Amino acid sequence: MRKHLFLRIVEALGVWSPYFRLRRDAFGKVGLSPLQKCTAAIRMLAYGSPADLMDESFGVAESTAMECMIHFVQGVRHIFGHQYLRRPTEEDVQHLLHLGEVHHGFPGMLSSLDCMHWEWQNCPVAWKGQFIRGDHGVPTIMLEAVASADLWIWHAFFGAAGSNNDIKLMCWTSHHCLLIYYKGGHLMFSLQLMGHNTIWDTI
Predict the structure, then answer these.
(1) PANTHER family per the record (predicted)?
(2) Is the pTM of the predicted complex or chain greater than 0.85?
(3) Is 82 helix (H, G, I), strand (E, B) or coil?
């Protein structure tokens, strides 16, 4: 995360709640800084670090680290949810279609759909068979994301077994549906994404 983005979140949380402000206790001792609390919360969310590890890294006790993460999630959702944690509007869809046609030369393209595999180091032995694919060799969990050129993520789905391929993963989500069929000697593709249908044929 870039520094200016992190500081923007910290400042916004400080305005939202006194919990993310530097305070003194009854003895006049300065408590944890907002930077410590937010860093501990982000570390647990981003890397899956256990709460008791925050004591060694940032001087935040286990119970306080869990409290920080809960307040952090609630604050981010309350402050930024209406802008960043929402479904695309009609204006957003038209903007994406315009970018796809003008900048990328693909009329009717909303955004880029991609899948990647994340290694699951602590996968239970009994589950390894359904989370391993031959070309990876280790248990993985698949992440599917739809992103536009301006780095907005419009859709994310995480949790499918790594034994699936990209096409099979599309059957897991309700956000889109891909159909491939022949019509008039041409191979046709029909993609329904975010409630909008796009049909194109092969060249």
Answers:
(1) OS01G0872900 PROTEIN, OS12G0169200 PROTEIN
(2) no
(3) helix
